[in-house]
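G., before I forget:
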Amino acid sequence: MSMVLVTFGQELANFRRAVVVSPAIGETTVTFSISAPDAKLVRLYGSWMASATSSVNMLQDTAGVWSVSVAKPAAEIYTYNFIIDGLSVNDPNNVIMQRDGTRYLSVLLVPGDKTANYFEAKQRGNLEKVWYDSPTIGKNRRMFVYTPYGYNSSTQKYPVLYLLHGGGGDEDAWSTMGRACQILDNLIEKGLAVPMICVMPNGNPTQEAAKTMMLPETTMDRTNPAAANMYINSIVKDIIPYVEKNYRVIADADHRAVSGLSMGGGHTLSVTNEYPGTFSYILPLSMGISATANQADYDAKFQAVKSAGYKLYWIGVGSSDFVWESAKTLDASLTRNGLQHTFFVTEGGHTWANWRVYLNTFAPLLFK
Amino acid sequence: MSMVLVTFGQELANFRRAVVVSPAIGETTVTFSISAPDAKLVRLYGSWMASATSSVNMLQDTAGVWSVSVAKPAAEIYTYNFIIDGLSVNDPNNVIMQRDGTRYLSVLLVPGDKTANYFEAKQRGNLEKVWYDSPTIGKNRRMFVYTPYGYNSSTQKYPVLYLLHGGGGDEDAWSTMGRACQILDNLIEKGLAVPMICVMPNGNPTQEAAKTMMLPETTMDRTNPAAANMYINSIVKDIIPYVEKNYRVIADADHRAVSGLSMGGGHTLSVTNEYPGTFSYILPLSMGISATANQADYDAKFQAVKSAGYKLYWIGVGSSDFVWESAKTLDASLTRNGLQHTFFVTEGGHTWANWRVYLNTFAPLLFK
């Protein structure tokens, strides 16, 4: 057995598997292919299509490879799958896969102006998977911490963005589906955003970490307000102190921002309302206030936020998001209480396409 | 739209999808299930089976869910897939998935003595995805760096294990398929291994990082010895200096170990032969010396390694590995040259099952 065979055996195996190239992004089309010699009907569904019923038929060649070319959709990150005789499967020839909660999906990243900051920058920050003790929740827990390019070789102190995920997500979501590292890298490299640390905790107090770590989970009575506030409290009592002890951080409100999407937008509202004066930058995304909520209670809390002072209050939401009415209620409540703020409205709904745009839009506004 | 619906909408969607539980590990059996109402024949193949032809038929219930219970295999990490009317698919209800090069596979982790150190320890080290400049290769590249539990809160300096992947792998392989963080966490927590930093670089000089980062790759003429040695040189000239500048490290040979599997075992041999006296712990895994190689050349290099001095030379290999003969040639060559060493032989072949065992076995021997 020669060294050459030993070394390259697995690479040759990978090469043989890779004969089907999918997806293949061309000038005006994208071609998807999958080998399924025994299939009767293979269809393609992509998240750029209007609905699941918009899926398109694929055609089989003599080798059993099914293919279809579709018009290249606008620059964006999409997910897609094949439907083989009624069964949804991912693309076995596409190494770009993302996990959304418990579900894995094949990814199509179409290049263009809108997605320029979603690709790797030249100057890249590091991403650390950090275990920290949370006495408030009673668990050793995991968060992801992004440090900007140059952090290791500098002695400077940095501001911190706390970036929170939504329901069904975990500490992994913003750095994968959200492309947070790439967006911050690109904005910082272009001089559009100031170098900052970005902390991405796990917002499910039942978990120590993402389900992929196979750790036991606890149950929690969500109707118990103490339980519901546990995570909010842990941000202020456990996470911020850990970050300010272990990273070179400017440890004051004017150098702390908090943003989150959906459930994490609710966490953003709660943590800033319960701890006014802790964060000078407050950015709830795709979240609002229920019309049936106690408005007087919100009024009192927003008055406290106003008294404590802040630099930026920025709401991002899509006009077809199912939280649209709630977001308008939040906007009106801030206005009624005299809190200067930005109500940033895009097209579209409750999607990562929008949350990436919001991060890319608001990061340049922070810490200036 | 109420806050509650906003917050829990995605979680409810996940709950509905999760009605099929697979795999379900029982006392003596493991049950696998998948919903495929339109399928004609569904089979299960697991890596614990003798061969692909050992796959077993699954049975369909009235709701279209196919299931099979198999005798629980011995404690180990396995991969498996379903074969639905001839098509291989992963388990959509199993969130534990691993990537082997370009291929994703569903994972079954059977608890037991052998796998005890593959689960999360109580005291967990962090894992950082680090970008560093490699002037030797001419790229900004990514490596993973594990720091042991307590690193952040201590002022002590640590020894470093450089842990190299095989052909088809990348910087992600040891921390995912290899369970390197869990193994080191558990050994350190139990007092069996000394706290150490573990550096996992990318051994493909054509790449800046794993293919999942979507970065351009270069081509390389592997027959050009200068190109072939580029990665070896970058370990000594770029990676070690970066690590010793940016981490609290004991920067001498007695506190440097290098180990690697397959292609990474070749890298281990090359970097220790080309730079004798740099590493005091030398641990090639599932690798050896071709019978057709220039033995006189190896003799000269091993004499230089012996002269420079080392603390441990440790070869791990499986007796049914296709490199078995080469490993025996390496063993004989070390003996002929008077290099004291351990030839650690297990059952089995060129598999992660063995590489995890080797790490779990040799880590307690390092830096003592």
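The two ends of chain B are 63 Å apart (CA to CA). Chain B has a mean pLDDT of 93.

More on Monday.
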